Amino acid sequence: MANDKLTPELTPFERDLLESFRQAKNGEYARVHTPDEIAARRRGRPVGSVKADRKRSTTIRFDHDVLEALKATGRGWQTRVNEVMREWLSHHELGL
Q1: How far apart are the first and last CA of the chain?
Q2: How far apart are CA 91 and CA 83, in angstroms?
Q3: In this predicted model, which residue has the larger pLDDT, 79 or 27?
Q4: 14-72 residue pLDDT tens
Q5: Domain that holds residue 70
Q6: Are residues 35 and 67 both part of a single domain?
Q7: Count: domains in the chain
Q8: Is residue 70 in some structural domain?
């Protein structure tokens, strides 16, 4: 059995890994994408999904502690700041 020396016993992890590759290739739990399929993907929003009233970029200065606290709330902190500002504006007259 010289061939057994060339094919060592697989560990349970290796056996499970090979099984997951087999399942992915067969489309049982995931789909395998080719490099060409990945390269053909479009970046950004799908066509026609861009909002008509787009946001505008600006620069605003916050105190260090305020900015760190806002960022600490996680992803979407700028959107939340925008919502808070919109709420504030709805309750205050600016007299412009």
Answers
A1: 91
A2: 13
A3: 79
A4: 988 888 888 878 877 767 678 888 888 777 767 767 666 778 889 999 999 999 999 99
A5: 57-96
A6: no
A7: 2
A8: yes
> Do 10 and 18 contact (CB within 8 A), yes or no?
yes
Is the pTM higher than 0.70? The answer reads no
Buried residues in 37-63 as b, exposed as e (16+ CB within 10 A) = eeeeeeeeeeeeeeeeeeeeeeeeeee
Say yes or no: 36 and 71 in one domain: no
Number of CB atoms found within 10 A of residue 24's CB: 13
CA distances from 90 to 55, 59, 87, 94 (A): 18, 22, 5, 10
Residue 51 lies in a domain: no
CB 29 within 8 A of CB 23: yes
Owner of token pair 């990945």: 38
Residue with tokens 């060339």: 6
Residue 36 and residue 62 share a domain: no
Per-residue model confidence (pLDDT) at position 94? 76
